Amino acid sequence: MTQQDSAIHIQFLGAAGTVTGSKYVISAYGKKIMVDCGMFQGLKALRLLNWSALPITVSEIDTVLLTHGHLDHTGYLPRLVKDGFKGKIIGTAPTLEIARVILEDSARIQEEDAMRANAEKFTKHTPAQPLYTVEDARKAETLFVTQPLNDWLPISDNISARFRYNGHILGASFIELKISNKLLVFSGDIGRENDLLLFPAEKPTHADVLFIESTYGNRLHPDHPETELMNLINEAAGKRGTILIPSFAVERTQTLMFMLWQLRKKHLIPELPVYMDSPMGGHVLDIFHRFPEWHKLSAEDCTEMCKDIQLVETMKDTQKLALNPKPKIIIAGSGMASGGRVLTYFQHYIGNTATQIILAGYQAEGTRGRSLLEGVAEIKLFGKWYPVKAKVNCVEGLSAHADQGELIRWLNKLDRPPQKIVIVHGEKDGAEGLRGKIKEVYGWDANIPGINDTLEISSHSIGLQQTSEIVDTIP
After folding, report:
1. Whose CA, among 87, 323, 410, 451, lies 20 to 30 Å from 213?
2. Do 13 and 154 belong together in one domain?
3. Which residue, among 161, 185, 16, has the nearest Cα to 88 in the 3D structure?
4. Alpha helices in 175-327 (DSSP H)
5. pLDDT digits over 154-200, tens only?
6. Cα(345)–Cα(322) distance, integer angstroms
7. Which residue ranges of the chain lie beneath pLDDT 70?
8. Shared-domain flag, residues 151 and 174
9. 116: in domain
10. What is the Cα–Cα distance from 198 to 196, expressed in whole angstroms?
11. H or E stretch including 277?
């Protein structure tokens, strides 16, 4: 085999310079492996990439490995299959169960949005089409293959992979990819050290090349999010307003339910009715019940918590609840207000000064959540503009992502410095902040790639090829 044949190429098709659209394609020894297959969200320029053909031949991809089930890591799978992928999609059992729920929910929302845009004529396309359908999502699910934690999975004679516990959400893992004598570590999204529901992430002990997320690479999470949440709820209750919490259906919704249940039990917040309007969130609760070894929540607590919170089932129920003027707390998808049932509540409540909107996690560039956080005067919902008079706050401590300190500590078990560190899954400030902190604490250099950049690893060097030039080759 020639030196060129044994080279490893990694192409960054997403989550490079941004937090969404995670997709990395590794080419080595005649195989093409994709780590994560996420959908872009947020900025229009990024969302349009979902509709563009990938700069690779999709049918040549042999395997997809998933770090976890979130949409920005799995949401492009139905499109990948539609475009010709026929290989295996491999992840932990909870990851694949969550991916089923998320993909079908995403497809339904896209179908409904396209139908609504066509019916109400607020589309430039004739007709508007979904990126993929529920049928497309279910075709992708037929390729799912479960892999247990910590067991090495042979992919070819020279390539194997294993999944290791990573906190963040149920089923999440970081991936170790062994290619000949090189070990590549993909962090996925790293969880919190003291998460209410999940155990701390395991840590890598060796990596030749390390790919690390940087969502919160430039900041620390504030302590005591429960206290901040309690104060915001009590303030809104004093105004007899409705409290809207846009929430990610996986883990964040369950964490919020747990927090609110505990605050009510301790009589620290008023006895306002609490509603969870996310069919997907309800399905994820079922997954929590089925995989007790993955989290801290006991079956008894899960059952008791659910008794205290009312689940909203149908869109008709959503519309009825939106018309209810009484003070209440509503948790509804989606977490960045980029879609989902929370938008129906926004239509009715965002113009009311007594309304409290509590954002419960990272808000990517270009999302409604980010716009609200930045204080916009109006937002667009279903083709119409609505004035924003509600009070908007973000409880950053509710994030399921490790902060800068936790990311730095995630590296402290490595037996020696990696030959190359690549910072991904972060906007510019987050990525640059983490790069500077890694240099300060460990003295290690790191690269920040852009979309479609390529990293080449040979027996003699590791170099990042950007779209314009080759930089930072390591002998």
Report:
1. 87
2. yes
3. 161
4. 225-238, 252-265, 279-290, 299-307, 315-322
5. 999 999 999 999 999 999 999 999 999 999 999 999 999 999 999 99
6. 6
7. 1-5, 121-126, 459-461, 466-475
8. yes
9. yes
10. 6
11. strand 274-277
Res 123: pLDDT: 61
Same domain, 206 and 261: no
- Integer Cα distance of 208 and 270 in angstroms: 53
Final residue belonging to a domain, choices 343, 378, 398: 398
pLDDT at 474: 30
Count of structural domains, the chain: 2
Q: What's residue 122's pLDDT?
A: 64
Main-chain phi, psi angles of 319, to 5 degrees: -65, -35
Whether 2 maps to a domain, the answer reads no
Q: What is the pLDDT of residue 235?
A: 92
Separation of alpha carbons 419 and 402, rounded Å: 23
Angle (nearest 5°) at CA 248 between 245 and 254 = 80
- Planar angle of CA 195, 199, 201, nearest 5 degrees: 100
> Among residues 335, 363, 398, which one ends one of the domains?
398
Burial grade of 440 (CB within 10 A; 0-12, 13-18, 19 or more): exposed
Domain hosting residue 433, numbered range: 8-219+402-474
Would residue 198 count as lying in a domain? yes
In a domain, 49, yes or no: yes
Same domain, yes or no: 246 and 357: yes
pTM: 0.90
d(CA 372, CA 346): 11
Q: What is the pLDDT of residue 466?
A: 65
Same domain? For 250 and 336 the reply is yes
